[in-house]
Specification:
With about 220 residues, the chain is an alpha/beta fold. Helix content is about 50%, strand content about 15%. The chain has one domain (about 1-30, about 85-215): P-loop containing nucleotide triphosphate hydrolases (Rossmann fold), CATH 3.40.50.300. A hairpin with a 2-residue loop joins β4 (about 70-75) and β5.
């Protein structure tokens, strides 16, 4: 069984997908973390994402792996655990740019499909149902208003002791939505067979229950 959860930045896809996977006993595949890992590598190297060939050359030999340690997902870049380094706004914005490049998508596609072919998985991202797992039995398009998503991100960063600016976060989210939806390669979109869930006024528990209910129909 494959459950594909797509949606814009800040919609809560990762949080929801992890909980759905845990309740069903499936493997959670965080594709966003994989793209963020590529983004972290490119930021460290100073690679210009406007130069597709340079990106392709730089990422040719990198190794990204997802492992589970004590039931918690860990992401490795060339044997370095980067789980705690890939959730910054800078890395997120770079990931949005990098994920538009064909060379980056091809680098990660094989790993993602291999995991889905071998296990019951819940996978979240921007183009899971439309591109990576087009035959997934359950497809969800999870969204929320830009204002709600910005407030969630604001609260998350504030809890970490940072001093975010709500207006800037919302502007960044709107800009990232536009970039993700208008990119030429595998744009963010709701497929015809995906169930729309707007979580703006839903609790996490309600969203998880709705997705499990949809999966139970298959």
């Amino acid at each position: 069984m494959n459950i594909a959860i797509d949606g814009p930045a800040g919609a809560g896809k990762s949080t929801i997908a992890k909980l759905v996977a845990k309740k069903l006993g499936y493997i959670y595949v965080d594709t966003g973390a994989m793209y963020r890992t590529v983004a972290l590598f490119l930021l460290r190297k100073g690679t210009d994402t406007d130069q597709a060939q340079a990106v392709a050359d730089d990422i040719k030999d990198i190794v990204i792996s997802i492992q589970y340690e004590n039931g918690v997902q860990q992401v490795y870049l060339n044997d370095e655990n980067v789980t705690g380094l890939i959730r910054t706004e800078e890395v997120g914005n770079m990931a949005s740019k990098a994920s538009a490049l064909l060379c980056v998508r091809e680098k990660l596609l094989d790993l993602q499909r291999k995991l889905a072919a071998e296990h019951d998985v819940v996978m979240d991202g921007r183009d899971i149902g439309s591109n990576i797992l087009p035959n997934a039995e359950t497809k969800i398009y999870l969204t929320a208003s830009p204002a709600v998503r910005a407030k969630r991100r604001f609260d998350e960063l504030s809890e970490r002791g940072e001093t975010p600016v709500l207006e800037k976060i919302e502007a960044d989210i709107i800009a990232r939505d536009k970039q993700d939806m208008e990119r030429e390669i595998a744009p963010l979109k709701q497929t015809e067979d995906a169930v729309l869930i707007d979580s703006s006024y839903m609790s996490i528990e309600e969203v998880v229950a709705a997705i499990i209910d949809e999966a139970s129909k298959k």
